[in-house]
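To whoever is on call:

I kicked off a structure prediction for a single chain this morning and the downstream step that reads the tokens threw a length-mismatch warning. I double-checked the sequence; it's 448 residues and nothing unusual in it as far as I can see. Pasting both halves so you can look.
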Amino acid sequence: MRDDNDFSKGSVIQAILKLAAPMILAQLVHLLYNIVDRIYIGMMPENATQAMTGIGLTLPIVSIIIAFTNLFGMGGAPLSSIARGKGDNKEAETIMGNSFILLVIFGLLLTILGLVFKNPLLRLFGASNVTFPYANDYITIYLLGSVFVMIGLGMNSFINAQGFGKIGMLTVVIGAVLNIILDPIFIFVFDMGVRGAAIATIISQFASSVWIIIFLCGKKTILRLKVSHFKLQKSRVRRIVSLGFSGFIMASTNSAVQIICNTSLQQYGGDLYVGIMTVINSIREIIMLPVNGFTNATQPVISFNYGARAYHRVRTSIKFMTVVSIVYTLIAWGILNIFPEVFMKIFNRNPVLIEKGLPALRIYFFGFFMMPLQFSAQSTFVALGKSRHAIFFSLLRKVIIVIPLTLLLPKMFGLGTNGVFLAEPISNFIGGIACYATMVATVRPELK
């Protein structure tokens, strides 16, 4: 098993595909946590649209939790892979142990802070008197499971980084299957509505986190989770945070963008358009999933071979990741333009929402095929430990481009709500080209 997980041997493409298939499936299943919640809530006999909008308003808080998960999980896993590529398994285990304890500490801290400030935050995010009760019910329960969410997502990165793609997939499947079973029971049978969806989610995440800890403490893993490695060391924490900061920025800026979008849409279109954005975000999560899975699967292969100084294999990995991601998004963009109504009806059957949402969806996804350039370049920067580049381009697309455009475009040329949706494709073109061109210019000379 240890030889099979040595990424410096055999075909690079086969190594990536071996990890990619289970990781994409794992991400697909993980997406079911939130997507299944929204699908079932959209089927509620009463107030389904208001409840859906309420859940959409909680997404910025969920994104903040994911941001801290990325900070320690995505920051530690590549460093652990690089150390393993150098043959230093003890250092790799210490990095993993430090990442684990950071996830636990910040999971507890975010739970406390979230519960204290959730009411003013939801109002700030655009909650009306109608949608606030649904948002409040969902996020109150969800916050109680923050630690399980962070352990489940953050530590699964270390399982995948060791080449155990199938184990990583099984981790997610356990939680998702539980979620699918428990959702209708709590939502409909116990008549708990959005609270039932949140309870089902945290129970499922708890099961996943327990499974991860059992595996990483067992004998089948290459790197073992040990209490002796929980003692935080300043130099390692700094390296973990430095490299994970780009993932943190990407998730936290997603939160900021969602806040700005929701408040702008509330101002120019009301609750209906906040609901439309919730549906569009759900569709985007589904369609972007293979790209996320594929770029995440390529990261351990790049990191390991970079640590082993097999630079030709690093170059091959980057090229393969880029081509596959672009081809996929072009195909997905075409299908979405041909059958947009089919995708929208997955989450809501309100005829008014669908009618107003179709043109918004086409605007929002116009530059979709440029997004893989940003994802591929970001993954390369992170895998090679180039934190400064990764952080800058995380900020560029969201903070420097999307947020100002979201505020300005609705006021220009009478665009209104269309201006909010137009900010995304513009950022995809500018951010994607700038990020990938910089990656090629800076990384290629080093890998020769």
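Update from on-call: the warning came from a stale cache, not from the record. Cleared it. Sanity check on the structure: The chain has one domain: 12-446.
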